[in-house]
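ok so for the tutorial part 2 we go from a plain amino acid sequence to predicted structure tokens. step 1 is just haveing the sequence, like this:
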Amino acid sequence: MDPRTFPLLLAVTCAAITANAQYEGDNTRYRTISFEELPAALAKSPKALILDVRTPGEYSDTSHWASLNIGHLKGAKNIDHREVGKRLSELPDHDRPIYLYCSHSQRSRRVGNMLIDSGYTNVINVNGGMSRYWNELDRLSMMDGLIERSAGYGIINAQRLCDMRTSRPVFLLDVRADSLVAPGKKPEWVSAYGAVKGATHIPIERLKEAEPQLPRDRPIVVVGAYTADAAKAASALVAQGFKEVHVLFNGLEGMIDVSDAHCSCKKDIWSSDAPYSAMGLDRLDTVALLSGEQVMIDIRPKEEYDGTAKDAWMNTGRFRQAKHIPASEMRERIASSGITKNIPLVLIGRGLDEELFNTARILTDLGYEAVTILTTGLWGVRWEAHNLPGRSAWDAWVMPPVPSPSP
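step 2 — the prediction. this is what the tokens look like for a chain of 407 residues:
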């Protein structure tokens, strides 16, 4: 799964829903189900309707947002979440099972609540959405037979890249812009994202003229900073007649926090010169946080930390045990915080925001020895708790915001 895009996605599609409310219907109004359980459930309910509530472009792999062209579930009916209320006549009787899904399991939850309000009694939300399938591709093989795509290129995750490399030669193609690769000063996040070792760099705009440099006797794995730029490049290569093209899902952004357990060749294929590290929620040591052996710092602005931001979707609560030092005040306040420079620090924000990388650099420049970014952010903690099997306990680590007293 990739919660990194949540703030943008939710701002567009769920702006009216507060962070605390979006999951309230789970297993109270509608049921939820994981990909691990879905094939068996569908086999037992052959008359169930699978309803894809994404846009028609996403469903058909023709969306303008290339990163969202990630296929659909076999046999699914597509009705845009914004149109479901006007097209209820196309749905089955109110007691027939309806399985809902989208890209990240946010729009499907909105539709689930709406269907319950409309009298439907057997509504099931597929947790995680299509993005979870591709992010955990190697661990969700039970779903392989239920996935259909019309794009001419493949999608692989980091572990599938490792597996591919062990079986045959692979051509790694870095399609980032020259400005992100050339020597010289770059945005901090670029340094943190690092690069794929051994990749040939050819920007998207030069792919056509560089065609003779590209092999046709081996798979080409396209890597970008994100999925979107790689997907555009992969489409261009397919149009040029290349037959075996794959996109690394989530690109370099996804490599920064993937664990060795989920990418066995990470040390061989990826490197970053950032003086700090990044990790996902699966590697956060709560025992160390509770004992004080590790300190978490919430770097969001005061109004978000207090839950008083004008945009309600930004009011995501607080992570237990986290101290609050806004990114804009880090240089001035860290010295008086009582945090020694040898204690491990974990930085958390709303999501994977650029200011996280900038703040991590500030702290390492100031001499803090072990700085780590928590890539999920507050949004991702909640998302994982409500969408990934075995992660529900994380929800208790996010507290409602409490406005700070006025000075």
